[in-house]
Specification:
Structural class: alpha+beta
Number of domains: 1
Strand order of the largest sheet: 3-4-5
Order of helices and strands: HEEHEEE
Strand content: 15-25%
Radius of gyration: 19 Å
Distance between the termini: 15 Å
Largest sheet: 3 strands, antiparallel
CATH architecture: 3-Layer(aba) Sandwich
Length: about 110
Amino acid sequence: MVVRRLSRSRYSAELREVEQVIAAVDRKQGKTKTSQETTMLARMLYSPRALNRAFAKAFELCGWEKHKEQCDYPTQYYVPDNVPNSPAKGDFREMDFGKNRVGVEVQFGK
């Protein structure tokens, strides 16, 4: 689990909160999508939207907020043939949740 990458000493409170949120989200509530595939017809599947809403609610209750950070990409590191025509203005990174310089991105995979 990616959660383990956090420094246990410096961000131990944030790590605890992330683990508590993961444990608190009722994954059964996320099974709201009915499969339309012929191999799994009418089978209940996890809805990423429903699970994202559940995680958002749980993180917000703990004081975590959507986080957007401006990015400056200096062109000095580009190879000569790969310099963008015009430097992008307003580049940013967005994380699902942030608190005390810790960012969380919720992702689901198959």
